Amino acid sequence: MRSYAGLHCEIIEGYSKGAGYQPGAHFHGSQFRNQWTAVWVDGSWRFVNCNWGARHVKRPDDPDRSLTYHVDEFYFLTDPDQHVYQHWPDDRRWQLLRRPLSLDDFVRLPVVKSPFFNHGLEFAETVQSAMRAADGHVDVKLTTPSLLGFAAKLRPAHDHDGDTTSLDDRSDRYVTTFKKLLGRFLFFIFGYNVSINRSILL
Questions:
Q1: 186 pLDDT more than 60
Q2: Domain with 160 in it: what CATH number?
């Protein structure tokens, strides 16, 4: 289709942090293998992932992998510095970054979904996919240009239940403290548009 449109494109293969991927997990074999496209537009390469841009798994823990269909424009002409949070090409040159990341670097990046970028969010400080809590305290700082509310959920890495709490409503810093627990946990941050009251996983 892109050839008919007169666009030069390349099919890229590599690993993606897709549905079911857990923060800090290492990549092996065929699991989480994916393909996406690089397109030459207006003098630069940009990324397109039609599959991710058109459909999504409703819940990663759903054994049936039920799909929901809607357009997510983040995956059409994605900037390289945002694309690399979810996609790592076998050929590092196709990261299109001045300083390409190793696969271990990619694993250490926090797992973020497209709404994180669609809402203009950024990490105010370096955050890694695996964090060690000090005295049950986790500190995550974000900056946001829009009016968003936030909530967080903490659950055991191998369980589907967990504590839920609200975060501070300051625009540049969101801090949550959970009770002291031993073990490995998944930490989810949700944002919601205050005007429409709809929550999204960031």
A1: yes
A2: 2.60.40
